[in-house]
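Page 42, continued from yesterday. The earlier attempt failed because a stray header line got pasted into the input along with the sequence. Redoing it now with the clean sequence only.
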Amino acid sequence: MAAPAAAHDAKSLHGGHIVQAGNFHVEMVAKADTIDVYLIDHNNKQIAVAGYKGLAILSVDGRSQRIPLEAADGKLTGKVTGNLPAQPKGVVQITPPGGTTVSAKF
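This time it went through. Structure tokens are written below.
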């Protein structure tokens, strides 16, 4: 029987890849030409992203692409020119309202 996960071990809530950045975990979900980024606290609860901004710098079709991310429906989301792989490589920069920008490397 596996040991239960500690509160700080984030689990995917949306089927994406998770990394830690600053005081939260970042889950990135790539679907065709859309990137969705969810923020998760250390209790594995989704963080409200109203007022947050983001920028994804990802490799798309072999080229680096800067994708502005806007808050919508509880996530940061943006459109990509081209098709994203299931687990794109790059960096997501997140700036909370009145806070310091953090980076999540994928």
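Notes: The CA atoms of residues 7 and 87 lie 25 Å apart.
Reminder to self: strip header lines before submitting.
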